[in-house]
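Incident log, structure service

09:12 report received: a user says their structure output differs between two submissions of the same chain.
09:20 pulled the input from the user's history:
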Amino acid sequence: MSKGGRPPGPDGVAVVDKPAGWTSHDVVARSRGLLGTRKVGHSGTLDPDATGVLVLGVGRATRLLRYLTALGKSYEAEVVLGTETSTLDAAGEVTATHDMAAVTLDDARRVAAEQLTGPILQVPPMVSAVKVDGRRLHELAREGIEVAREARPVTVHTFTLDEGPEPGVLRAAVACSSGTYVRTLAADLGHALGGGAHLRALRRTSVGGFTLADAVALDALTPEDLLPVAAAVAHLPSVVVDGDVAVAVGHGKVLDRPVLGVDGGEGPWAVLDPSGALLAVYADHRGGTVKPDLVIPAG
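09:34 re-ran on a clean worker, output below:
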């Protein structure tokens, strides 16, 4: 029983297929009701108009969300050539139009490959959560304020384009590092092609190893859909311990590397018991030792 005599709430990772028109905060609020616990958080926002993979931490897994934020992501979307908007996507007001009828699919593919794939510098859009002088950009944008933003390094692993559902629209598939704005990719593609563009129909297809195949429709989410707590750190190298070492890990003790069984590597490491349950996450320490970055309390 938990404090106050209440039974413990559910623990684990929920992979939700976010519906259009919902903020990530809306999804968290709805999930709290569906799962019967206040302990729900998300690992990275999706725009309200976007759909697709949103990873939630529930119960004890909320403390592990920080290990998910840096995971790579993949998306599908449509790029509308010839029209720029204030938000770089279909939700904004049209700010400029261009005649781009002469642009071919091969033109777009060449620019995407040569200029917008690999390590690139990207200026965050004004409608983003990036902070400048202590204010989030989207807050300034709502006040009609535009400020200079520094370009940030991101990595676009793949940026593929195909014919879209209508003339002047391209289907895009992007795999990228965390922190990449696909709407900015669309706008930059338009500019590089001699005009402008905006994004529509954005759908996130994966976050790290979590894909749409793992996702559950929001309103269908139940505690039975939760993945184990350890799923939140499945991308980390892991080690299995038992006996006295497991007890020491549970007490959060600093250990020699050989004792934990991590002679090589830089970590962090997911420390599991023989059943696969997560006990802790350990990180490198000084003098050939490792220390707990986070210990999971016994359920």
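09:41 both user submissions now match this output. Likely a transient worker issue. Closing.
09:42 reviewer note: The chain has three domains: 3-71+209-229, 73-199, 236-295. The mean pLDDT is 91.
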